[in-house]
Design goal:
The strands form 5 sheets. A 10-stranded mixed sheet has the order 5-8-11-14-17-20-24-25-22-23, with no helix packed on it. A 6-stranded parallel sheet has the order 6-9-12-15-18-21, with no helix packed on it. The protein has a single domain (3-180), classed as 3 Solenoid (UDP N-Acetylglucosamine Acyltransferase, domain 1). The protein has helices at residues 3-12, 29-41, 215-220, 235-239, 243-246; strands at residues 18-21, 24-27, 44-46, 55-57, 72-73, 79-80, 85-86, 91-92, 97-98, 103-104, 109-110, 115-116, 121-122, 127-128, 133-134, 147-148, 153-154, 159-160, 165-166, 171-172, 177-178, 184-186, 191-193, 203-211, 223-232. The mean pLDDT is 93. By secondary structure, it is α/β, with parallel strands linked by helices. Strand 3 (44-46) and strand 4 form a beta hairpin. It starts with a helix and ends with a helix. 15% of the residues lie in helices and 29% in strands. Helix 1 packs across helix 2.
């Protein structure tokens, strides 16, 4: 397939930038290569109509939706780029951006000032709160993008980058930063999860700190930011998220 066919199939959901297999999530290298090919073959052009004054690659224009698509793209500066899949029942509040190769599944919300980066995979019934940054991973092509599985709640201002996997039903509190350079501290199981490890199913993660070890840092009372798993979801924590459904 040429890159145009790949972009078409990404928009219908027939192809994805990453797929869940028996061995876990795996990047779709051919798809990511095709997206990179579209960049190489694109030339800058100006757009007309509501996008007048903007310039981008001619072959990666913003997507348009019709009521029958079932997507609620609220006016006010949001954009979904060519080659991104947005399922029926998704709500996108302004301003928000969904980049090429991304996948946003049924019933999810992309709130104001949220970014879904290139090739990021967002599952069903996920809430990306205001200001959430989901990083994109196009290169290296074999690296998994950020993946947020079904029924996750990502709090305002959270940043998730570098191919981190957040497993189903996890709750990421506002302000948490997840990247492969930051270890995750599991206060429930009393262990330090290796750098870049996935966030387990149902984990509730809050922003925390840990002391720095050098003598100078100790004398200065310095600490480093780190994510901490403080609990795993139960009936009480699920009840606290019912407001999400009420707001729909």
């Amino acid at each position: 397939m040429n890159y145009e066919e790949v972009l078409d199939k990404l928009e219908t959901g027939e192809l994805r930038s990453a797929n869940k297999t028996e061995n876990g999530w795996e990047a779709n290298i051919e798809v990511k290569q095709a997206i990179l090919e579209s960049f190489k073959n694109g030339t800058n052009t100006s757009f007309e109509g509501i996008y007048e004054g903007f310039v981008d690659k001619h072959n990666l224009p913003p997507r348009f939706f019709e009521p029958e698509d079932g997507v609620r793209l609220v006016p006010g500066g949001s954009s979904v780029r060519r080659g991104a899949y947005v399922a029926s029942g998704v709500i996108i509040m302004p301003p928000a951006y969904v980049n090429v190769g991304a996948y946003v599944d049924e019933g999810s919300m992309v709130d104001s000032h949220a970014l879904v980066g290139s090739c990021a995979q967002i599952g069903k019934n996920v809430h990306l709160s205001a200001g959430v940054q989901i990083g994109g991973v196009l290169e290296p092509v074999g690296m998994n993008p950020v993946i947020i599985e079904d029924d996750c709640f990502i709090g305002a201002g959270a940043v998730i980058v570098e191919g981190i996997l957040v497993k189903s039903q996890a709750v990421i509190a506002p302000g948490v930063v997840l990247s492969k350079s930051i270890p995750v501290y599991d206060a429930v199981n009393e262990e330090v999860r290796e750098r870049g490890a996935e966030i387990p199913e149902g984990a509730v993660v809050i922003p925390g700190t840990r002391p720095m070890n050098s003598e100078w840092a100790k004398n200065e009372g310095l600490s480093m930011a780190c994510p901490i798993i403080v609990k795993y979801r139960d009936d009480n924590s699920n009840a606290s998220l019912e407001l999400e459904e009420a707001l729909r």
